[in-house]
Write a structure and sequence with these properties.
By secondary structure, the protein is of the alpha/beta class. It is about 45% helix and about 15% strand. It has helices at about 35-65, 65-80, 85-95, 100-115, 120-145, 155, 175, 195-205, 240-265, 285-295, 305-310, 320-335, 370-375, 375-390, 405-425, 440-445, 450-455, 460-470, 490-505, 520-525, 540-550; strands spanning about 1-10, 15-20, 165-170, 185-190, 210-215, 225-230, 235-240, 280-285, 300-305, 335-340, 395-400, 435-440, 455-460, 505-510, 530-535. It is globular. The termini are far apart. The structure holds phosphoenolpyruvate and magnesium ion.
Amino acid sequence: MVTLYGKSVFKDICIGKIHYYDQDEPRIERYNTDNPEKEIELYREANKKAVSQLKSLYDKALADIGAENAAIFDAHRMILEDGEFIKSVEKMIADEKINAAYAVWQTGKKFAGMFQEMDSSYMKERASDIEDVSGRVIRLISDKDKAGQDINDADKLIKLDEPAILAARNLTPSDTIRFPGDKLLGFMLEQGSPDSHTSILAKSMAIPAIVSIESIEGLKPYDGHTAILDGENGVAYIDPDEEMYSEYREKINKIQKRKKELNTLKGKESITLDGKKIRLYANVGNLRDVEAAIMNDAEGIGLFRSEFLYLENNDFPTEEHQFNVYRQVLEKMGDKKVIIRTLDIGADKKADYFRLEDEENPALGYRAVRICISRPEILKTQLRALYRAGIYGNLSILIPMIIAPEEILMVREIAGQVKSELKQEGIAYKEEVEIGVMIETPAAALISDKLAKEADFFSIGTNDLSQYTLAIDRQNRNVQPFFNPHHDAIFKLIEMSAEAIHKEGKWIGVCGELGADTEVTERLIKMGIDELSVSPGVLLEIREKIRESSSGES
Ligand code: PEP
Ligand code: MG
């Protein structure tokens, strides 16, 4: 049995097999086709071209560096002309009715694995040659295939054959959302922090997760092994012994009992002992989370991270697509408040089609409202969808990463244009939608009195507010030991924002992870926080805490 320690993200326990996701491996999407013959043709053409490229490379190398060194290109050519390899690729395409690139990738992996298992070190080395030549053919297929297949959502998912604990060095949010949620038992990551977006996804799925795992060899060697993942104590036991199993069966029973106890809070008010009513809302990223929010008795949606709609698409989501999603969220929530945040793309949340440059300091870079203001056509599409969907429920719009009142005015101006265009086009939309602002930077907190004049409500993003206040990158595990989520500087900024915003008669909530930290629930309420928005899985725990707290206002 091996014990690995990390930082706990979501306090639950699971037992299952580890599936290691290797992000260094080139990843080829698999999709089904009605026309496998066309895919076989594509493969044959690419293979022929690759063979001819390798012949030219051989000739050139022969002239430049001599026969002995040129021989590698000949060996590569021979792999591509190998009858077994060709048969295997074509059979896979025909039998499984799948795309050529995926079949070449899988066949390459299978053959490379066979060489890897051979005793001779010479033969073992051939494994990487096979991967190399497969890659050459795949690139040629992809070049031909650029027009792009119409891949539907299910095909974009990364396949998991059975429920598994996902382990990886790190996962980007766009990687994470491509795993089928119903097959994920938990997460184990070598990198990351409890406030990184991938951790937030684990929380919204309510599955146990630990990050920043200390392991000299990394997690790859544990692929396929069984593990007990204890998200409560931030520990994982690989190949647990019988004693550990029985200890954990008991712990799982206790967790089940606790969940039942919390369920009795459904339908009860989120009200302090001295009678202050707190709005207890949910953070969501998709329709499945909205279902979970409803199941856990959320009083509204305090943060819909709309950027996930962008991350799960291969191109900008259309107005119609967005409208349909927002409309469904609003309809599901009935007359309850639904706060949809405009896209917070950038930093660690990147989609290729935005063509964002690599940045030296992405967290301090081109993200969120900065993209929206400088590329208003993107924001306009989203706002059109939002204002149209607004007539189906109780919508508010939230703007991320604001640092100046002028930015709010710019967004309001674009919103005004969108509404007059919709009017001119005779398209139904909601005229009055509140626009709120996120306090995610020390700048926003420090001038919250000025921002309060321009926005209708506020929500504190403590994840970013903490990283920018403490200068601690929320993605970087090396600085996690210096991270104190309860640092006085953070609370000072929260307190001064609450005071300034209340002076203008507006309300303020917390939608960052600090809002889900029961150790500070009472402290936040005493500072005047009116709303807490948390992952669906912790809503009832927070309700319990609110009901045990005093606001100190009466
Ligand atoms: C935050 O920064 O606290 C927040 C809620 O936004 P996100 O986590 O999506 O950056
Ligand atoms: Mg944020």
